[in-house]
Amino acid sequence: MSSTVNRMSMDKVTSLNKLSIKKRFRSQSQVLRQKVIYVYCPESRVEEIRSLAESYSFEIIINDYSINDLTRKVICHYESALLSIEHRNFLVSATEVGAWVEPLVSYLDARLGYTEVKLLASGYFLHQKAFSILSTKRTQIAKRVVDIVVALILLILTLPIALLTAILIKVESKGPIFYKQKRTGLYNEEFEVIKFRSMAQDAEASGAQWAKKNDSRVTKVGKFIRKTRIDELPQIINILRGEMSIVGPRPEREFFIENLEKEIPYYRFRHAVKPGITGLAQVCFPYGESLEDAIWKHKYDTYYIKHHSTSLDLKILLKTVKVVIFGMGR
């Protein structure tokens, strides 16, 4: 009798487990393909999220607590600490019936491939374990070793191109072959970035200004080397000095940073890592010349810092090669 009851209990548990598995998503890729997701947040943030969602390819339903069937639904929460106990319990119960429950920013990171910086709060950056590139010395040492090896290989392979570029710059226009400019790097420290000169010698006689897509200050040789990113080759020296990395957020001038940080949340967070010759923003977003463009690049840079990995660096390098070969740069 006892063994029969135990067997029946076990069968019931097994059957419930099977039911639970059927109710749940089979993989994260399935989660990221959902046409509708449900978001729960304080009422004060509804319009902001709704505004961002207008550009998404999927629908977002906000604060629908009347939904009965949560089976295999994607439930995202934002600023959940500000929700009532009843509403927080709703999120907990959603997990119990097979819903996928996740912070909104994390879900959007995975689905969009960039970070919605307008949704960030200081707590996002305080959880450094999520930022693998910042959390361990081993990660930083490994990245430095790769930087040195790749930089030396590039130095040897691109030397003929660099010599030819130097000659063409000298023949076409007056002025130095190299262009040096102060940029802000790791931990907000300034350094001199080295590039092949691509503009006329007096390009900034009237003061600092953003480079434009069809900038009249750019020389003929400069147009080609900017398009193919050849102008960045001298930054191999910056890498060997330890001022830059192969992959990372592009370094910006302090003059522009002071203006951008007034408009872009946590803009200086990019300085938590070394700047790079190429980066996720450079291969995913066209050359920028406005505040809106800078915001988009910051989205990709923040995503890169959080999700850094050797495989991500490799993907960025492969995409950079495409840019160089097909001239998809500036």
TrEMBL record:
Keywords: Membrane, Transferase, Transmembrane, Transmembrane helix. Residues 143-325 form the Bacterial sugar transferase domain. The keyword Iron does not apply. The chain crosses the membrane at residues 145-169. The keyword Transmembrane applies. It is a multi-pass membrane protein. It is found in: Membrane. Its main location: membrane. GO terms for molecular function: phosphotransferase activity, for other substituted phosphate groups. One of its GO terms (cellular component) is membrane. Belongs to the bacterial sugar transferase family. This is Exopolysaccharide biosynthesis protein.
